[in-house]
């Protein structure tokens, strides 16, 4: 069965469902029961069982003695190839950001209720920001997170915040849903998001989102407040936009 996405492109339902299952397994650390997958994806148990059975036969999933589903060994090859391809795609963009701003550049994507960093090119300065590739961070306290959820429906954002919470990291962290909703309004208006020492004291970050829906990603520049002033932060927005010009998710 085929459906049409908001972009007007045709979508294959079975493919959507298969990747929904793989994403759900990944978010659970690579292991889930049939019931877990039904709850996480909203699919019927018979559908989940059928699709997982097919994936298990191909080696992309496996089942253990507890009858849980686990990500299979064939996915390791896919993951390694995806990491290489992502780096080849992201590196020129991030290097352009570093060259233009002098600060560390990151690329990140949504993962469930959080954000995961895919790639980074560090600043040439001895004092610089470092975020481990693969690290998962929260939406409410990061520029990349705000950029990626700014286009979401307000009710969806509130539901996400109820699930994830709004942990305070610094005195500047936004910890009230209404305050974050207002901040996301500003992100939509200006086209970029900021982090003003909200996750880590003394660190400033600016980010923009590129693409739509699940295919979107964010790129950012971050540095110490003393060097990455508000004026330099604002100037970095144009550099970020130029770096992704013509790049497709």
Would you kindly provide a written description of the structure presented here, covering whatever features stand out?
The chain is of the alpha+beta class and 249 residues long. It contains eight helices and eleven strands. The protein has helices at 13-27, 34-41, 45-57, 74-101, 143-149, 154-164, 177-190, 230-244, and strands at residues 2-4, 10-12, 31-32, 61-63, 69-71, 104-111, 114-121, 136-138, 193-196, 203-210, 217-224. Strands 8-7-6-11-10-9 form a six-stranded antiparallel sheet, sandwiched between helices. Strands 3-5-4 form a three-stranded antiparallel sheet. The chain has a two-stranded antiparallel sheet with strand order 1-2. Strand 9 (193-196) and strand 10 form a beta hairpin. Helix 4 (74-101) packs across helix 8. The longest helix is centred in the middle third of the chain and has 28 residues, at 74-101. It is globular, with a radius of gyration of 19 Å. The mean pLDDT is 90.
């Amino acid at each position: 069965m085929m459906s049409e996405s908001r972009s007007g492109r045709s979508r294959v339902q079975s493919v959507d469902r298969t990747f929904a299952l793989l994403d759900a397994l990944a978010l659970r650390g690579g292991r889930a029961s049939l019931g877990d997958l039904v709850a996480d994806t909203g699919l019927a148990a018979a559908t989940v069982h059928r699709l997982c059975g097919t994936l298990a036969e191909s080696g992309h999933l496996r089942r253990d003695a507890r009858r849980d589903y686990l990500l299979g060994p064939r996915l390791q090859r896919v993951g390694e190839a995806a990491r290489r391809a992502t780096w080849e795609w992201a590196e020129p963009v991030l290097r352009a950001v570093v060259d233009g701003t002098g600060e560390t550049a990151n690329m990140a994507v949504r993962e469930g209720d959080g954000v995961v960093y895919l790639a980074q090119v560090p600043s040439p300065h001895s004092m610089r920001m470092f975020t481990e590739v693969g690290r998962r961070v929260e939406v409410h306290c990061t520029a990349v997170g705000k950029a990626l959820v700014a286009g979401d429906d307000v009710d969806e954002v509130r539901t996400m915040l109820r699930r994830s919470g709004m942990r305070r990291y610094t005195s500047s962290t936004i910890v009230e849903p209404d305050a974050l909703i207002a901040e996301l309004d500003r992100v939509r208006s200006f086209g970029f998001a900021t982090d003003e020492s909200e996750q880590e004291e003394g660190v400033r970050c600016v980010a923009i989102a590129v693409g739509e829906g699940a295919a979107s990603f964010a790129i950012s520049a971050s540095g110490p407040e003393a060097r990455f002033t508000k004026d330099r932060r604002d100037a970095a927005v144009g550099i970020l936009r130029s770096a992704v010009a013509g790049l497709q998710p």
